[in-house]
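Two records follow; treat each independently.
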Amino acid sequence: MTKSILGLILALALQSPAPADPFDARFTGRTLRFDYFHSGTAREEHVSLDSLRLEREWPGSRSHLIDETNLGKYLFEVIDLGTNRTVYSRGFASIYGEWETTGEAAGGVWRTFHESMRFPEPRGKVQLVLKKRAPDGSFREIFSTVADPASRFVDRSPVPPVGTVFPIFESGPAATRVDLLILGDGYAADEQEKLRADVKRLTEALFAVEPFKRHRGDFNVRGLALPSPASGVTDPRRQIWRKTPAGLAYNAFDSERYMLTFENEALRE
């Protein structure tokens, strides 16, 4: 009799449908981008919503969605309104976080930076929360807003392909690897072979040292070719001015060695 009951239980278990994937139950599989303005000085800080943008397939992990590293000056959280549970989080550092340490910011000069956070598109309304690390190491909320993926205010226009993506090496699916994309800015149309050689050289230099060397198999590396109208990028101290696809330039925050782009939306698109 016991064997018969065990056999029946086993048969029912084999016939029962597998439990739904928690990721698929909660998210659509696409990417939602939260664009916002980050403004202030060394003593005052404000965040305001710019837009929500629907992108292509979610390229990140589908299982490790909560950041438990406790790293970064800022923390981004996505909270499900139905359960009040955090369904996605990421610690990060931002350009604004650097700006507020500069002499200009300390002198009361205001600046605004455009920033973005990407997360899996949820199936329902969520709370988007930005937190900043306090002097005691804890995170304190500086901004919060409700996002409805079904809202007519979400930009659903197709994201056009830009440039040419070329692989350096691929170790596995994007969802289970760290994806690195090396962007080439300031390479003219006749310098694309040089770009590919430079990307390969940079990649080999990176993975020649630890801990990257032993974790090479945990990465995918690709390059993005975006031909520029002319060779080089802007360098104000040398009176060199260029208009490039990603807007990279030397002398960020008036530091000669520092190259950044402040054209966040162009970079994201």
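The next record belongs to a different protein.
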Amino acid sequence: MMSRSRMIYVANVSRIAWRIVLLDQRFSSNCASNKSNVRVRFAPSPTGMLHLGGLRTMLYNYLFARQQGGQVILRIEDTDQTRLVPGADKKLEEIIWWSGLHYDEGPSVAGEYGPYYQSQRIPLYQKYANRLIENDYAYPCFCTQRELDLVKMQNIKSGLNPRYNGKCRSISREIASARIQNGESHVIRLKVPDGQTNFYDQVYGEMSIDNKSIEDQVLIKSDGFPTYHMANVVDDHLMDITHVLRGEEWLSSTAKHALIYKGLTWICPQFVHLPLLHNITGGKLSKRHGDVFVESFKTAGYMPEAVVNFVAFLGWSPDPTGRRQLFTIDEMINEFSLENLRRTAAKVDYQKLSWFQRQYHTTRCKNESKLEALVSELKELVIKTTCNGTNSCHSELLNNDYLKRIILSLEDRRPLIPEIATKCYYYWLDPSINANDMKTITSKPHEIINQFIQYFKDTKTEMIDDNQINLCLKELQRDYSINKKSFMTLIRYCLTGEKVGEPVSILFNLLKKEVIQRRLSVASSLAS
């Protein structure tokens, strides 16, 4: 009995079969289609969240296409059914739209080259795999997994490359066809010819690969689905892609792709392989740590402009001097050039991302309408995360003017709104403090706090400024020999529960006088 998932797949294929036929007919008469107009594609796999490298690839494709007056296509490469993550395709699209990189054709934007999910294009790959067999560039392979594992073990034992030995190459087409007709499980492999394969890359130049180093790659798996190598070549040709911009990790596979193009008598697109991304120490950027995923930056409150500007410089720079850093998308489009792409791996320095965020956040704070949007965002987050509903926070503490003052006072120090809502909870809730922590700052916290409380009570103004704090500090230094750093740390701790944070002057500027007095009194009692 056919499984439910297989039934759904067959139904989907039936629904789109007519589109496949039309698409195939359009190109069958002209293998090397007219590619005078630039068309690029971003083709992620929905196996997880979009990472920085993926966003960079999308960005460079976008910049190049827009500069050339071309088109950007989003294609979902979902042929590896075992690794699919439900909903990942929609998340990928959401992040792309959030980034401001709007594509021209794709799953959510209808176009004449669809469908844009590879799983809906299966008949095409099988047809062109058969054509490769006819042209002697592919062959059916009937080796079982046990046989393949045995070959691999023997090769490793002999110190050879653990790859397929080409056993099924010698099977005649007639015999292979009969075995397939009898229902024997098989894959279709690339038949790598003798000699060399040459191709040109816009970044790495002329490449010449000895075909002896190229494995007879599986093109169509036993379940009928294509591998990446087969699907991307067929789709790039049928979708009229002129330039393939992708990560350097695919450079070693490009010779295989060039052979597939040759076997189908198609013209290769222009290849542009982008440098790898490394961490700040020069090591591999690991996806195991959530900080490489664009979604995590969005959740943390980074602006799309900051993330895109940051990613743009990971392998490309419009200004050789490095003096200019801030570029709008339109400015990037004007300046972008394939000639300025670097070969060396780009180091991902998250401090640089923070710098970009501060610059864009400062600009945002100067725009009244954008500032109001930040206030609304902060209020929503404070109610949800810090106050656990409005009942936990006094209504005055959710006042728009108060929230605006907080944002502007912390403009340079905390440019991420979610960080203000969670880490600066003390602007809405009393902190949790204890005597032991105070005594690690100074040996006489009770006496110092009491004297400061008295000084604070005697002031006539609502707020204490730096001058008044310094005058009080002189008295405390005389009486208790406490230095300025320890004194500020103690007062900050009493007011926020944190030993490190904003300057005390900012706290006194934002917190109400009665709140300061209450928290200092609580601290004094605990320290006694």
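Discussion point: The chain has four domains: 31-74+86-107+275-365, 121-242+249-271, 368-423, 435-527. How would you locate this feature using only the token line?
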